[in-house]
Structures are given as structure tokens and as C-alpha cells.
Amino acid sequence: MENIIINLMEQFGYLGVFLLIALENIFPPIPSELILTFGGFMTTYTSLNIVLMIVFATLGALVGALVLYYIGKIFNKERLTRIVSGKVGKVLRLKAEDIEKADHWFDTKGHITVFFCRFIPIVRSLISIPAGMSEMPMKKFLLYTTAGTLIWNTVLVTLGSIMGKNWENIVAFMDNYSHIALIVLVILFIAAVIYFYSKRIKKKVS
């Protein structure tokens, strides 16, 4: 995959970066770290410049984020409520009120979450789906997404440019960061599930 990405970027320049980052947001397994750091390196030996590299990467990220946002909007709160009210809800032990609580949480605290999640691999893409599900206002979604993505892109493109031929060192470091972040997220998810069900059991006992 690495060779394909590099070849596309070298052949299509800014357009290649735009398309790859858009795809990366829709299909998280595509590594944005590789795209951005190599893009930064390209500015050291081609006519491409850092500013436009960041601009096209950010525009690509916004396109990808909007696709997932609208996917989330299709599976809105009402549809999820109907789903958990049936057999699926019984299997997962979810109720309509759980969807309501989750939606309320995203309405009150989820907006800033969209910003911070842009710095977490995989989650940085998927966070657009719950944003769409909760019908987060488009202006706020674009604001927080652009701000978080712009910082992420700027840091990695700049580092790629500074490191030059050693740009792969940044990719290796970010790969370790991704693994650690995912492990932490899995632990937090398991802890949240345990807390959720233990709280429900306590309610039934009381």
C-alpha cells in the first residue's frame, strides 16, 4: 500500500493528496501519517509547497468527513431508537432511553469531542458518524473538524518537510502512537461497557 500511495502522490501532486486524504477519512486503514509526512518531504525536492499541501490535505479531509457525517445522518436517533426497540436492542440489552442519553451527551459535550478526536488515529475519521447521527449543526461540525484537521495536517506535513529523506522516522513514531492510542481506547471502551452494565444491574437489584 505504501508504494501505491507514494506513486499516486508523485504522479498527481496536490490532487493525489486531496483524493488520498479524502479516502483515508472514509476508510481509516489508509494511513494519513504516511500521506502527510511524505507530502511534506515532497516539498523539499519538487515545486510543491507546504502551504498548498496542507490546504489540499485539509480540503480532502473535510470531504471525507462530510461523507461519514451524512452516513450518520441517515442512521439518525429516530432510526436507532426503532432498532434498539426491537430484537437487536434485546440482544445488546439497549433501550430507547440509552440512545436518548447518548444523543444528549453528544449535544452537550460531543462538539469539542469532534475537535480532539481529530488527533486520534481511526477515531479521527469515525467520529463524524455520531456527529451526523446527533445532527450536530453543520457550521459547528465544519468548524471543529477544520480546526482539528488543520492542526494535524500542519504538524505532520511540516515534520515531513523538516525530516526530509528521514521522513519515514515520523511514520514509525506515529505508528507506535497509533498502537498505544488504540490500546487505550479499547481499555476505555471495555471500562465504559462494564460501568454501563454494572449500573443497570444495580438499578434492577435496588
Give the tags:
206 residues, mainly alpha, 11 helices, 83% helix, elongated
Could you characterize the architecture of this molecule?
With 206 residues, the chain is mostly helical. It has one domain (2-171). 83% of the residues lie in helices and 0% in strands. The chain is built from 11 helices and no strands. The protein has helices spanning 2-12, 14-26, 32-42, 50-74, 77-84, 87-92, 96-117, 123-126, 128-133, 138-163, 167-205. Helix 3 crosses helix 10, helix 5 packs across helix 7 and helix 7 packs parallel to helix 10. The chain is elongated and about 65 Å long. The termini are far apart. The mean pLDDT is 81.
Topology:
Layout (H helix, E strand, L loop, with lengths): L1 H11 L1 H13 L5 H11 L7 H25 L2 H8 L2 H6 L3 H22 L5 H4 L1 H6 L4 H26 L3 H39 L1
Helix pairs in contact: 1-2, 1-3, 2-3, 2-4, 3-10, 3-11, 4-10, 5-7, 7-10, 10-11
Largest sheet: none
Outline, from the CA principal axes? elongated
**Helix percent band:** over 70%
The count of DSSP E runs of length 2 or more, i.e. the number of strands, is: 0
Overall pLDDT score: 81
If you compute it from the alpha carbons, what radius of gyration comes out, rounded to the nearest whole angstrom? 20 Å
Distance between the termini: 55 Å
Order of helices and strands: HHHHHHHHHHH
Q: What oligomeric state best describes the polypeptide chains here? A: single chain
Percent of sequence in beta strands: under 5%
